[in-house]
Structures are given as structure tokens and as C-alpha cells.
Amino acid sequence: MAVGTASLSQSQVGEFRRAGFVVVRGLIGAGQVSELLADYDRALRGEIEVPAFGDRRVKGAMVQLANPSQHMAHWRGHAYFRRTLAAAKQLIGPDAAYQYDQLIMKPAHYPAETDWHQDAGYWQDRNGSDRAVTCWLALTPAWKENGGMQFIPGSHLGPIQEHVSIADRSEINGALATAADDRNAVAVTLEPGDATFHHCRTLHYAGGNATATPRYAVITHFWSPQGTR
Questions:
Q1: Number of neighbouring beta carbons within 10 Å of residue 221
Q2: Strand arrangement of the beta sheet that strand 186-187 belongs to
Q3: What is the pTM of this model?
């Protein structure tokens, strides 16, 4: 896949429009995954200044790095960033633009969930409420039992639901949650370098990590400046 070119097939674009999410295998290669993980470790050691939620000094704590690509300038030229942006333009329009990103590590045997929510629940007063997309890029294996992503197909076609704050019981900064009927939820299994893209109104969830495998992921959000889906 050439860096910066169209990342998705027409069938993948169609799947996104139908289901509200799409799985992309091999968005980046193993060497590129290793580069991002090495930078994460450097940030944890304090060699690169990146703001963090969670105590990066405590073994077994979940750590959320805030806006890593804004603090590591070389990330903007990395294949992951250029390919996610190219895909976002295919999915929500050529005016799609980067808004913010985060790198979240969910440690082994870590029970905390990321409750059901819509990203638009955070962005109702901004353009991200209807024409926005999020890329969830796996840097380590991710599946249901270690906190991999789950989606409710077609939920992006509904309204933005009422969300409530769960900041008092979540280690995700400013976390929100909403009601969801998860009987039709789809759990996605990803290998390092695989990614999902989901619409801002798609209901999604990640469970706790009940395994010995830590789960690392880079999450990047893109909006278009105009409304309408």
C-alpha cells in the first residue's frame, strides 16, 4: 500500500456506510508498528514529553497518552497517520481533518471496561456530531477477552443518545456512557497493524482485559468542518 494513497476499497467504504464500522487488515506493517511502540516506551520513560492520564510510573496501571502526534512531530509523516487520514477522506469526505488522538494501553488482567458510548456524545456542540470518523489501530493483538473493540451494526443511523458522565468510575479522561442493547454486538479481533474505522454515532464498547496480553492501541479522530452525514 503506497503511503498517502487511498486506503480502502469500494466494498470497505460500502461496509462502513451500511454497518457504521469497517475492519482494515494490515493498515501498517510490523516494522511500522514497532516504531510506534518504541515511541510509546520512550514517552513512558519521560524521554519524550507527552501528557498522560494515569500514573505511567505504576506497574499495571492503564495509561492514556494525550495527543501523541502533536508532541512527536515525526508521527505526522508516519505511514499510520497518512493512511488513516487518507481513509477518513474516503469515508466522510475530502475535507476530513485531524482533530485529536490518544494512545491507550490496557494492561494484562485489568478489569476496567470502556462503557458503551457514541463518540458524538462527546462532540454534540461541535462538528464531530454527525460527519466524523475514528480510527482504532491495534499495536498488539486485540480481541474480545483482552479489551478489543465491539460495535453495534447500524447504530450510526440513529440519533445521538443521552450520555452520562462516568468519570468517577473510569480511568479514561472525561468518560461518558449510554444505554445499549448489545445482543447484536460484533466483537472484532485484530492483529498488530490492523485497524477499525467507525462512524461518530456508532455505539461501541471495550471490555476489561482478562488475559495476560496487554492491549495497545492508537485512536485518531477526524471531522469534516461541515455537517450532514
A1: 20
A2: 114-117, 204-206, 149-151, 186-187
A3: 0.92
